[in-house]
Amino acid sequence: MSLLVQSMRMLARDWRAGELRVLAGALVVAVASVTSVGFFADRVSQALVRDAHQLLGADLVMVADHAWAPAMRAEIERRGLRGAQAYNFISMAQVGAGDAMRGQLAGVKAVTGNYPLRGKLRTAPALNRPDAPTAAGPARGTVWMEERLISALEAPVGSRIRLGRSEFEVAAVLTLEPERSANFFNIAPRLMMHHEDVPATGLIQPGSRIWYYLYAAGAREPLAAFEAWARERLGRGERIDTLESGRPEVVASIDRAQRFLGLTALLAAVLAGVAIALGARRFVERHLDGCAVMRCLGATQSRLLSLHALEFLVLGAVASALGCAMGYVAQEAIAGALADLMRATLPVPGPLPALQGFLVGLVLLLGFALPPLVQLKNVPAVRVIRRESGTLQGGTLATYATGFGALGALLVWQAGDLRLGLIVVGGFVVALAAFAVVAWVALRMVSSPVVARRVGAGSLALRYGLSNLRRHARGNAIQVASLSVGLTAVLLLGITRNDLVDAWRRAAPPDAPNRFVIGIQPDQLEGVKRYFAEHGIVAPDLYPMVRARLTQVNGRAVSSDDFQDERARRMVEREFNLSYADELPGHNVIEAGRWWTKGQGDPPRELSVETGIARTLGWKLDDVLTFTVGGEAFSARIASLRKLRWDSMKVNFFVMTPPELLKPFPASFITAFRLPEDKEKAMNGLTAAYPNLTVVDVGAAVRQAQGVIDQLIAAVQFVFLFALGAGLLVLYSALVATEDERRREAAVMRVYGASRAQVIGSQRVEFLAMGLLAGVLATAGAAAIGQLLARRVFELDLPPAPALLVAGPLAGLALLALNAWLSSRTVLRASPALTLRDSV
Amino acid sequence: MTSETSAREKAPSGRNDDLVLRAQGIGKTVKSGDRDLVILRDIDLSVTPGEAVAVVGASGSGKSTLLAILAGLDTPSTGSVALEGTDLFAIDEDARAELRGRLVGFVFQSFQLLPALSALENVMLPLELAGDPGAAAAARAMLERVGLGERTHHAPRHLSGGEQQRVALARAFVVRPKLLLADEPTGSLDAESGAAVIELMFSLNRESGATLIMVTHDESLAARCDRVVRLAAGRMLA
Lengths: 840, 238
Prior knowledge:
Mean pLDDT of chain A: 75
Number of helices of chain B: 7
Mean pLDDT of chain B: 84
Oligomer: heterodimer
Order of helices and strands of chain B: EEEHEEHEHHHEHEHEE
Low-confidence stretches of chain A: 180-187, 246-250
Helix content of chain B: 25-40%
Strand content of chain B: 25-35%
């Protein structure tokens, strides 16, 4: 009989006998949870990338300082992508005539009717009225203007303004524009008009400083193909903006979100490993006799192993496929339930999560089922006669080395991040070993004869339960360790779900600045501060800003040709905004080197540089940079590298110097602050008093960014909830794994006169003590791993959570109490006579 | 299966004081698929103190089921069992367990020692359940009596089959039972260990003055008992 046929028969028999159901169930749930997380995460991250593109107004933005070749526009259409165009330029908007004429520089953006391709424009019918999204850009002959421009020009909705040679009606207040947040600096208040109205204004002349924008959006593949095609054909003064190059703060948020989702998938996989180890152990325990018989009948060890391995392989394939299907259905249901919350339609998931889930199932099954399966082949034939020979060895850590190895590789693959994967795998391996040792010692201590006699003097159940802990110390220690690992995962999800998410929220707090004021002249500082004080607005920090061009690094002239990276090339070509300060800004952290100390001898010629830009441009500590400001050069050494919180929405500078170095140069000041909603009008007064100031309303942009972040959190929380459910199932399978032994024990106890209360009582004492221990261990483990993750991976401060200290042990107790209740039901339902006969 | 049998007729008290055990009209029927399978039919059995009764019969004749019912481990479909005058199925399962713990000792074919407990702990189990403060000393003495005084801390898996059954005998006799129920006590043992275990069982039985009901298919073993009850297809042969 061929091996396959025989193992299929065994599979069918074991299935009928119900031997494989716990195992298969654990596997299906595990794979379903992994894949539903995978599918859902795939869709969310696709949606995330797509929605984050709303901040660009498209998936791909192409910018040039001259008109784009018609071939480029044609290619967008030819590839089935949607395209839009815009002109950006600065121009004077005017109202009135003669002495009453007022003008204000406006950042004009002329767009085609279908702009933006991603995200929405929002307009309000008048100042300080609620806004709403719009379906299309401004109609021909009309303009939309930002609040600041309307205030400055005193041109309310319905009035008329002049732009070049044309006159337009002000049709709406522009409250939100996707791209606006892309660059806070140097932007004049926005005026938006129709693309086809531009020629009539006569504003486009040779030598005019105009930026020509091409936008593209569509499916991932043709878009990527177009981007590749276009990049090869980029000429001088032409560039492609993508999310990565455009917005560091958005990239930071997405990166974090992907780590969160990845972590959740990792934990689901860890839980699966625990469930499968327990299920396989039970399977093997129940097959020792059968294998001994087969050995008697002439089966070789290798044949026994091949038969069972094949049986498991087929089971794994079928269960994994079922799990994938369930995962797909589950994520559909999840997405449906969350449709409103998500506020975005999710793209169709790719096939990769299914493949991953399938492999996860197989790898987990073989990784965690193989070690006990190998023991099956070692069963001595004499067990047929002497049942006590060849009993199953305890699941030592070493036997699960393959499982953890496989899991580790899998986790690293799923995380797509070696560090994160290793932290999770390492954490759990260390936790499991430590848990087992601590649990063993604790169980022996708690149940020492002295303690048992003293504590249990009045109650047989208590005394017997405690004695049982000692008698089963080894098995119980493994049990407690497994439960602790599962519970650690669950608690870790609890912490990450609440505390890490809270910490993340705090990183972009609701009181994040919503206004930037740019271009404050030194002689206006006092007046501006007074204005803020008079209007009851919390006095903001004012940062000096000096525009400088980088000319040399370590004495060598810098050119954009030195760099491959697009972002690096652009940074080098642009002017830098430098700032100076005595003290390190509160939201900055020194990563390397040191911040200068004030007033010690000669002013230090030092710089502090943001780590990201240092990496991009290849700068190291002690490199000497040379900048020119208005034709005058200065050099300084990089003394420290700073880490910034881009998503804090505070004023951030790539390069800072001590005050002495930059003070001689002309500077303007910039500030970011939170303007309370009831003080909106105060800003109109500020711009009226200081017409040269540019007030950037970042409130809308912050809301937009927070909308994206909130959406992420909703998804992450849901994904966590799902993995939590999987964790609970794993804990239940741990109970089922010891059910046989407990039932037999209860039967023998009852034969010898134990009452139901005594049987239940002793089990309860045992379970509750184990639950408390597992809960305490898991609390410690989760707190430690949570801190590690927060500090090393997410770079967040995670305050200790007192709730966890209570919730952890309580969760352990509650779960084991539930288990004890379930267990006593099955244990007592069976007739002792039948139980004893079954176990013969 | 419920253990409550309050609807059943109560055994008249006082009348059976001279019997350790009185079973009347025991029948046992189980569902097997669509049809009822009769395992035991109308069994009457009375056992006097100190008597040794062998229950013999072919495999499947219902011997072990009868023994389980006599011990109150299983419930009959019809009939009643009075142990020391108490109707086993007129009281609840906990009361039956308490009665068993006080009056009955068991020896099983497959020993039924708890693998996690040492030999001593296995013997202590029924005493501990009864709340006997001298459990350890009594168990140790009993193990010495069965010749395992040196092996008190061995786990069952480190003992031979014969030794395990001796531990089981020690466990059965440590409570000084009025009634010893033995289910094929030598069934899992080779001839030599089986003979030694039987000798030990009979001598312990004599010493304690317990009543013995033993299920066996070994005729020579049955012949050593005072009385032999034969079962065939669930019926008691005259």
